[in-house]
């Protein structure tokens, strides 16, 4: 499996997947902030998104003009097949490690 | 949880519409981003701002907005977007497959929409490409000769330069017969030195029982060759080997030759068979080689062993000890050792020649080894190849035609610019890249060129067969050969760029703001270019029109000018030159008896022809006159038969040996006689003997019109008279003439059973002397037709365009009372001016070149003013006819149609 994604990239990628048709800048930001309880800057988020797109893990398309944002269009993101593959890979790796270290991971009393 | 999920409008709007994000931050962001596509980012920022307003004070929300902007400004996301070209994130790049599909689709639509333009362009380009293709095939053929020999770059022919008795430079592409052997023995540094002699014998195969099977002397390729010949040129030996040629009376045959001699006899049975050359040279077959299947100038089929020469009558022709006799039939070849320079060899061989050519009157024989690759272009005894410049001229011509066609294309494309400027404007507004537009236009050109190439490919075969006499034999068109396909590909790409790049760049440069203005885009500044191109095309056409007229005049002049003798229904027959018997005289007597024959003469050559024998004759008058004089030999019927007019004295009397001379007027003048009568009974000395002048005849042409009439004597050199001139009765019909020729052939065959019969009308022979000019003239006519055609296409297209942009003007003029004639005149005026300018340009240029061409003729027509007048009238009428299709249609149009739309 080629390619490597960082923790934050994985988080954004999963969030995009979970948001389905409604994954765009603000919705991703709100969701990530809410779930992980941390503040992220819009610049950092978009940089990560850009990198994910460059790696071909997500693709984007521009939506229709909206009334809300002064008529400005949203850019919607969607996971690609290679994105899905890499998420599975990351998950399998974790599961494997979890299986091996399950005994040790029980908090000692 | 899930507050945002699935919610299309995840933020609630309070009534914050009046509160806005800080303007300066927004502007800063917009300024920083410039062309990058950031609409979605701005949207996100705005949305976050209003979201924040719900939770915090406007001041805080503003501060937050500024921070977010800053985070974006320094983010990778923005750097990345700025790096990408304008708006390309939403659009495809110019090379995206979808765009390529779109290019072709649009090209197809545009071509379909402008059918007339497209047809004009395709026709013009097809013509140009077809011309290029044909010239390419010819060039390929001409350069394919003898390229297959191993070590071909080390093989040279021994040629040289010396001076003839008249002290003119003389290129010699042959060697004295003993030269090759001497070079081999006395100079080292050659891998192979070999000489061979081209023979033209009569071939027959004795059969034992039946009379010998004769193969005549026509189309023979017989040489006397040494075994070393086969070290110089490689052959595949089917049987036998080169060493057999060390013995006399052996011959090696090529496979095809052996098959034609002996049918399908097995090779071991062919060996030892007898072949007879010139009835008495009996040789036996000692080997068979495979024919070369590539183009070559050495297509020899019979290789008689060199040693046969000394043992047979051949020694009388090939004088192996005579260094002063250079005949075309004796050839010398060397193959240098690797690394040796031909320059050194030249010096050494020159010195060798100097040593042996003793009694030569001081003219040195300067050797220059001629590379094998040049031999094809120096087939004649000339220092400069006639053929190569012609080939280059043809290449130039073909390219020229293509360029004119491309110019048409440029012209028509830019003429369409007004129509297309709106399209271009809209495309640009919708975000098209300039590169995409350039590619779009080039694709259109490419599609048209592709059609043109296909059309040219279809045209090549018919054109090749129609122009058979210009195309060297052996030129073939094979579409699927690699060089042809590569050439066509190159042509397609090259022509597309040549014709398409300029319009593509110009059209794609239009600014949308200007081209979308209601008034349209006027580009008056570029009109001069279009007009210039039309002027150029017409200048070229006029050049060819004038050239064709002048050449036509000269050729008519050659055909109709009084040559000083009559050629009407005279045919010539040649008999074996080496025959010393009385057979020609008997043949003359026999032919005389045939019905329908008016007169017969025994002669050497007819009055005018390729072969002119000249020698010096002395006359001792007040001073000695010793000049070269042309010899015409014939019996007493020669002068009456050709109706050469006697100015003074009488005709020669019948005699078996030379007794007296009739001279021509020019010679009489050269001898210093004021009147022809004065020359009578004067004494000329020739070869140590003296002969009286008995008559003076009017000058007649002996050579082509390129050369002046020489001083000339007519006498009866009986031993040289191997030709016969037969004057047929002028009343004969074509069928009777043919029947008579068959009868003459029968008489000939009775005397010469083994010789091929050959007879020609003198008029044809004279025409062959000017064959080159006639071909040039016909080529000129073809060029004229092509250039006129292309120019017509060009001017037609421009008229179409002019009529289109002036539709409204014409409408208004008609409403105000202009007649159809007025309007046609108005529209045509412009073109007449252009053609007149073209006449002004073409006249001096064509005068210069045609004058050069005419200067080569000693007897020529003058270029008269009416040639230019005629050419000018022709060009203007052709131009006007082309234009009139459009102008008349435009003038007849109903003004209500042209004025109603706005």
Structure, described:
The complex is a heterodimer of chains A (109) and B (902). By secondary structure, chain A is mainly α. Chain A has a single domain (7-105), classed as Arc Repressor Mutant, subunit A, CATH 1.10.10. Chain A is 58% helix and 9% strand. In chain A, helix 1 (7-19) packs across helix 2 and helix 1 (7-19) packs across helix 3 (42-54). In chain A, 30% of the residues are buried. Chain B is α+β, with helices and mostly antiparallel strands. Chain B has 4 domains: 1-90, no CATH class; 152-375, no CATH class; 388-554 and 773-900, no CATH class; 570-763, no CATH class. In chain B, 49% of the residues lie in helices and 15% in strands. In chain B, strands 1, 2, 3, 4, 5, 6, 7, 8, 9, 10, 11, 12 and 13 form a 13-stranded mixed β-sheet that branches. In chain B, strand 16 (613-620) and strand 17 form a beta hairpin. In chain B, helix 14 (387-415) packs parallel to helix 17 (482-508). The two termini of chain B are 62 Å apart. The model of chain B is unreliable at 1-14 and 85-90 (pLDDT under 50). The chains are: A mainly alpha (109), B alpha+beta (902). Chain A: InterPro entries: Tscrpt_reg_PadR_N (IPR005149), WH-like_DNA-bd_sf (IPR036388), WH_DNA-bd_sf (IPR036390). Chain A: Residues 21-88 form the Transcription regulator PadR N-terminal domain. Chain A: It comes from Chryseolinea serpens.
* Name of the CATH first level of chain A: Mainly Alpha
CATH topology of chain A: Arc Repressor Mutant, subunit A
Number of strands of chain A: 2
Return Rg of chain A in Å: 17 Å
Taking the sheet with the most strands of chain B, its summary is: 13 strands, mixed
List keywords for this structure.
heterodimer, A: 109 residues, mainly alpha, Arc Repressor Mutant, subunit A, two-stranded antiparallel ribbon, 4 helices, 2 strands, 9% strand, elongated, B: 902 residues, alpha+beta, 4 domains, 13-stranded mixed β-sheet, six-stranded mixed β-barrel, 29 helices, WH_DNA-bd_sf (chain A), WH-like_DNA-bd_sf (chain A), Tscrpt_reg_PadR_N (chain A), Transcriptional regulator PadR-like family protein (chain A), membrane (chain B)
């Amino acid at each position: 499996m080629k390619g490597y994604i960082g923790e934050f990239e994985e988080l954004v990628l999963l969030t995009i997947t979970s948001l389905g048709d409604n994954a765009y800048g603000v919705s991703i930001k709100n969701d990530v902030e809410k779930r992980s309880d941390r503040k992220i800057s819009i610049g950092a988020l978009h940089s990560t998104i850009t990198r994910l797109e460059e790696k071909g893990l997500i693709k984007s398309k521009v939506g229709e003009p909206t009334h809300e944002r002064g008529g400005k269009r949203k850019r919607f993101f969607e996971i690609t097949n290679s994105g899905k593959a890499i998420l599975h890979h990351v998950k399998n790796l974790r599961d494997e490690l979890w299986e091996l270290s399950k005994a040790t991971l029980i908090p000692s009393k | 949880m899930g507050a945002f999920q699935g919610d299309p409008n995840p933020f609630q709007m309070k009534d914050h519409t009046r509160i806005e994000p800080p303007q300066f931050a927004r502007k800063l962001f917009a300024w920083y981003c410039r062309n990058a596509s950031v609409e979605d980012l701005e949207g996100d920022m705005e949305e976050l701002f209003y979201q924040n307003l719900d939770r915090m004070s406007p001041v805080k929300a503003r501060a937050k907005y500024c921070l977010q902007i800053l985070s974006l400004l320094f983010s990778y996301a923005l750097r990345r977007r700025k790096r990408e070209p304008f708006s390309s994130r939403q659009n495809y790049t110019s090379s995206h497959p979808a765009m390529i599909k779109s290019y072709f689709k649009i090209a197809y639509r545009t071509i379909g929409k402008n059918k007339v333009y497209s047809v004009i362009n395709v026709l013009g380009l097809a013509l140009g490409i077809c011309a290029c293709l044909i010239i390419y095939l010819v060039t390929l053929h001409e350069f394919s000769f003898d390229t297959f020999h191993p070590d071909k770059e080390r093989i040279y022919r021994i040629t040289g330069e010396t001076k003839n008795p008249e002290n003119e430079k003389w290129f010699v592409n042959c060697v004295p017969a003993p030269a090759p052997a001497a070079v081999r023995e006395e100079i080292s540094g050659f891998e192979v030195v070999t000489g061979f002699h081209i023979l033209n014998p009569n071939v027959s195969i004795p059969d034992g029982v039946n009379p010998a099977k004769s193969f005549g002397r026509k189309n023979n390729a017989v040489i006397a060759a040494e075994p070393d010949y086969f070290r110089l040129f490689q052959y595949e030996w089917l049987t036998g080997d080169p060493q057999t040629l060390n013995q006399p009376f052996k011959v090696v045959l090529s496979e095809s030759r052996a098959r034609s001699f002996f049918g399908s006899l097995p090779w071991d049975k062919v060996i030892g068979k007898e072949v007879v050359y010139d009835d008495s040279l009996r040789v036996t077959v000692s080997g068979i080689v495979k024919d070369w299947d590539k183009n070559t100038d050495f297509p020899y089929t019979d290789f008689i062993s060199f040693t046969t020469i000394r043992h047979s009558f051949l020694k009388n022709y090939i004088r192996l000890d005579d260094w002063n006799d250079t005949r075309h039939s004796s050839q010398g070849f060397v193959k240098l050792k690797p690394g040796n320079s031909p320059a050194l060899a030249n010096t050494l061989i020159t010195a060798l020649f100097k040593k042996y050519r003793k009694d030569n009157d001081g003219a040195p024989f300067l050797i220059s080894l001629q590379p094998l690759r040049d031999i094809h272009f120096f087939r004649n005894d000339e220092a400069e190849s006639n053929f190569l410049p012609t080939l280059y001229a043809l290449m130039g011509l073909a390219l020229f035609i293509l360029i004119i066609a491309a110019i048409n294309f440029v012209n028509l494309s830019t003429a369409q610019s007004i129509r297309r400027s709106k399209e271009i404007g809209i495309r640009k507004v919708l975000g098209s890249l300039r590169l995409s537009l350039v590619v779009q236009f080039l694709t259109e050109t490419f599609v048209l060129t592709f059609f043109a190439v296909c059309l040219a490919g279809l045209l090549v075969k018919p054109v090749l067969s129609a122009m058979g006499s210009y195309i060297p034999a052996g030129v073939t068109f094979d579409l699927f050969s690699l060089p042809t396909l590569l050439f066509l590909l190159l042509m397609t790409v090259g022509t597309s760029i040549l014709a398409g790049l300029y319009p593509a760049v110009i059209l794609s440069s239009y600014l949308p703001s200007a081209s979308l203005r209601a008034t349209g885009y006027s580009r008056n500044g570029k009109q001069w270019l279009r007009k210039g191109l039309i002027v150029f095309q017409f200048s070229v056409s006029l050049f060819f029109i004038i050239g064709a007229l002048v050449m036509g005049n000269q050729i008519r002049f050659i055909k109709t000018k009084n040559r000083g003798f009559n050629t009407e229904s005279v045919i010539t027959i040649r008999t074996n030159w080496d025959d010393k018997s009385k057979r020609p005289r008997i043949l003359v007597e026999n032919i005389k008896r045939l019905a329908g024959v008016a007169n017969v003469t025994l002669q050497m050559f007819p009055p005018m022809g390729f072969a002119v024998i000249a020698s010096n004759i002395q006359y001792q008058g007040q001073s000695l006159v010793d000049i070269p004089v042309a010899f015409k030999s014939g019996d007493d019927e020669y002068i009456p038969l050709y109706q050469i007019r006697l100015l003074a004295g009488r005709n020669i009397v019948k005699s078996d040996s030379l007794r007296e001379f009739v001279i021509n007027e020019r010679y009489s003048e050269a001898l210093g006689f004021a009147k022809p009568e004065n020359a009578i009974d004067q004494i000329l000395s020739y070869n140590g003997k003296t002969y009286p002048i008995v008559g003076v005849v009017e000058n007649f042409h002996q050579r082509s019109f390129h050369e002046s009439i020489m001083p000339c004597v007519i006498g009866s050199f009986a031993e040289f008279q191997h030709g016969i001139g037969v004057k047929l009765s002028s009343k004969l019909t074509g069928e009777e003439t043919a029947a008579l020729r068959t009868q003459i052939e029968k008489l000939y065959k009775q005397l010469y059973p083994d010789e091929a019969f050959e007879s020609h009308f003198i008029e044809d022979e004279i025409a062959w002397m000017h064959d080159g000019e006639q071909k040039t003239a016909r080529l000129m006519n073809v060029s004229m037709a092509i250039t006129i055609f292309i120019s017509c296409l060009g001017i037609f297209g421009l008229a179409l365009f002019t009529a289109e942009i002036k539709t409204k003007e014409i409408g208004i003029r008609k409403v105000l009372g202009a007649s159809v004639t007025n309007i046609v005149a108005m529209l045509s005026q412009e073109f007449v001016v252009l053609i007149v300018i073209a006449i002004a340009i073409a006249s001096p240029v064509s005068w210069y070149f045609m004058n050069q061409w005419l200067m080569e003729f000693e007897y020529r027509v003058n270029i008269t003013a009416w040639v230019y007048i005629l050419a000018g009238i022709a060009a203007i009428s052709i131009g006007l006819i082309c234009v009139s299709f459009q102008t008349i249609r435009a003038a007849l149009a109903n003004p209500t149609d042209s004025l109603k739309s706005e």
